[in-house]
Write a structure and sequence with these properties.
The complex is a heterodimer of chains A (about 290) and B (about 325). Chain A has about 290 residues and is α/β, with parallel strands linked by helices. Helix content of chain A is about 40%, strand content about 10%. Helices cover about 35% and strands about 20% of the residues of chain B. Chain B folds into two domains: about 150 residues, Rossmann fold, CATH 3.40.50; about 170 residues, Thiamin diphosphate (ThDP)-binding fold, Pyr/PP domains (Rossmann fold, 3-Layer(aba) Sandwich), CATH 3.40.50.970. The longest helix of chain B has 15 residues. In chain B, about 60% of the residues are buried. In chain B, helix 3 runs parallel beside helix 4, helix 7 packs across helix 11 and helix 8 packs across helix 9. In chain B, the strands form three sheets. Chain B has a seven-stranded mixed sheet with strand order 4-3-5-6-8-7-13, sandwiched between helices. The chains are: A alpha/beta (about 290), B alpha/beta (about 325). The interface between A and B is medium-sized, with 32 and 28 residues.
């Protein structure tokens, strides 16, 4: 096992918090977008991009890279902010989100921006594409390949039959390099997932298709780190991480409220959110004082 | 405006014992050959491998064949992912299911994404026959020709389907090819030129004027040529254009035909609304409005029956084409 030192943890938490601030600033500037899922996934994106993803921002089309497929394309502000933070493009460009001529489309579009592997937004399509990539990679490079195929999904989009079709195929094709990450935040546009379309027992559904399931607290960086380590086992079995998250995480006003699925904060709301995140930044420093 | 005259057509196409092969079979041969030539070619099937022409490829290249089961949304999205890794995926199913059931996935993950996935929709038109209206795709051209980045091809016979398959296999862009179930007359030969985006004159003189221009797509082209010959005995001079690429439209050929005839009849085994005739009409309305008549399905679903009797019931028979020619001439 790789070691996840206190210094790593400190940097990861700081990065996740910075990503959250970027998300708020982008959405305020754009005047529309989806804050809840983006804020909720910041910790996982920080751990993945800082510690696990095989990629090279200087060479974004490096053939042997891992692929990140954002099936729930609407949470793209977290992906854009992460890509800018790790050096794919300038952070200044984040402010162009959703504007005419911007490479940062309201939902991500392949070819506009390095680091975007596919166009997404219409839900339910990502897992199949990630599966197709894993199949093609195995055809070309067999077991030698070190590439992993990470597919982020919202829990709401698990309603979609396309996901179920992919779930069965990945198991049949023994896609051990395919890793699904479900943002289990219990909300979707029309309300709570349990009311719109109950998903439980969610773990059983994936296990019944033949997947290995890891259920974690999606805000506990130790658990996130451990899950990304564990998915490296069992080369013939696809894996899914069910990350229990709080939508709007990090901004008290937004947390747990489905109303924030697809609404940008206004100047007052955004100002309060940024203040709260700035305080959290100082608190992270205090928490790690003497530990690193 | 230049119209290319097709050369080396099958001289025996009107003989009693003429060769009949389905376009899906022509596709199957083409796919096998494309697979031999290019290791990037893969085939994905949704539980309809043999009946859509994919059997020979699947047998020859099992390691490049993915069976997704009855799951057409998965069919095209998995293909999109494979294309992103450098493959040239062919997906085959019945057209009512693909591109019928999975249109949005094709739109977003293939066309908007601009991935070189080839959508092969077999069993188009009422000539599918006994399976009935559920399985007779009559809307696929409308669905596919409205998509940016998509090429739409409807081969007239098995040999053209074979050539079209090899051509789309060489292209790094999305493509849709519509195929038919029935064995239909082979009008072309190995030496007939086929080029994506190029319509060819299959009947009539390359020079001079004519009374009516027929633009046909798919195997109905055969009937259109037969009708042209019948009408010539009645004193009409008819040109018949094979529009096997519906999108991008060969505007030059369509315009040339409209200019020399001043009256156009379109013939297709598809809904009139949104079909090939619509594509031609949109173009001519802007560039050279001439009277037009549309032979196709008029806002109806098909039903069970034999191919020939269904074509007649749904007004795509020879008599229907004759009447369309008479009507359009009268409107000049």
């Amino acid at each position: 096992m790789k070691s996840f030192s206190n210094k790593d943890k400190y940097e990861t938490e700081k990065k996740a918090n910075t990503i959250r601030r970027q998300v708020i600033e982008m959405l305020m500037e754009a005047g529309s977008g989806h804050p809840a899922g983006a804020l909720g996934m910041a910790d996982i994106f920080a751990v993945l991009y800082l510690h696990f993803l095989r990629h090279d921002p200087e060479d974004p089309f490096w053939e042997e890279r891992d692929r990140v497929i954002l099936s729930n394309g609407h949470i793209c502000p977290v992906l854009y902010a992460t890509l800018a933070e790790v050096g794919y493009f300038s952070k200044e460009e984040l402010k162009t989100l959703r504007r005419l001529g911007s490479r940062l489309q309201g939902h991500p579009h392949r070819g506009y921006l390095p680091g975007i592997e596919t166009t997404s937004g219409p839900l339910g399509c990502g897992l199949s594409q990630a599966a197709g990539m894993a199949i093609a990679d195995r055809m070309d490079r067999g077991d030698e390949s070190e590439s992993y195929f990470y597919c982020f999904m919202g829990d709401g989009e698990l309603n979609s039959g396309n996901i179920w079709e992919a779930g069965m195929l990945a198991s049949k094709e023994r896609l051990g390099k395919l890793v699904g990450v479900i943002d289990r935040n219990n909300i979707q546009i029309d309300g709570f997932t349990k009311d719109v379309m109950p998903l439980e027992p969610l773990r059983d559904k994936w296990e019944s298709w033949g997947w290995l399931v890891y259920e974690i607290d999606g805000h506990n960086i130790d658990q996130i780190y451990e899950a990304f380590e564990k998915v490296r086992s069992s080369p013939d079995t696809p894996k899914v991480i069910i990350a229990n998250t709080i939508p709007g995480k990090g901004v008290f006003e937004f947390e747990g409220k489905y109303e924030w699925h697809g609404k940008a904060p206004d100047a007052d709301e955004g100002g309060r959110a940024l203040k709260e995140l700035a305080e959290e930044d100082r608190e992270i420093d205090i928490r790690y004082k003497g530990l690193i | 405006m230049t119209i290319l005259k097709a050369e080396n057509l099958n001289e025996g196409m009107f003989e009693e014992n003429k060769e009949r092969i389905s376009t899906r079979e022509g596709y199957g041969r083409g796919l096998l050959e494309a697979g031999e030539k290019d290791p990037r070619i893969v085939l994905l099937s949704a539980d309809l491998t043999s009946s859509t022409g994919g059997g020979p490829f699947a047998e020859r290249f099992p390691e490049r064949f993915i069976q997704v089961g009855v799951a057409e949304q998965n069919l095209v999205t998995v293909a999109s992912g494979m294309a992103a890794m450098g493959k040239i995926p062919f997906t085959s199913s019945y057209a009512v299911f693909s591109p019928g059931r999975n249109w949005e996935q094709i739109r977003t993950t293939i066309c908007y994404n601009d991935q070189p996935v080839k959508i092969i929709g077999s069993h188009t038109g009422v000539s599918v026959g006994p399976d009935g209206g559920t399985h007779q795709a009559l809307e696929d051209i409308a669905l596919m020709r409205s998509l940016p980045n998509m090429t739409v091809i409807s081969p007239c016979d098995a040999k053209e389907a074979y050539k079209a398959t090899l051509e789309i296999a060489r292209s790094d862009r999305p493509a849709y090819m519509r195929l038919t179930r029935d064995k239909t007359p082979v009008m072309t030969t190995d030496n007939t030129e086929f080029k994506i985006g190029k319509a060819m004159l299959f009947h009539g003189d390359i020079e001079g004027e004519a009374d009516v221009g027929i633009i046909a797509t798919g195997p109905l082209l055969y009937r259109a040529i037969k009708v042209a010959r019948i009408m010539e005995e009645r004193g009409y001079k008819i040109n018949v254009l094979n529009l096997s690429t519906i999108k991008p439209l060969d505007g030059e050929a369509v315009l040339g035909l409209a200019e020399r005839t001043g009256a156009i009849v379109t013939v297709e085994e598809h809904q009139i609304k949104g079909g090939m005739g619509g594509e031609v009409a949109e173009f001519l309305a802007e560039n050279r409005p001439v009277p037009m008549e549309f032979v196709g399905v008029n806002d109806a679903f098909g039903e069970s029956g034999g191919a020939v009797e269904l074509l007649e019931k749904f007004k795509m028979g020879e008599e229907d084409m004759i009447r369309a020619i008479e009507r359009v001439s009268g409107r000049k």
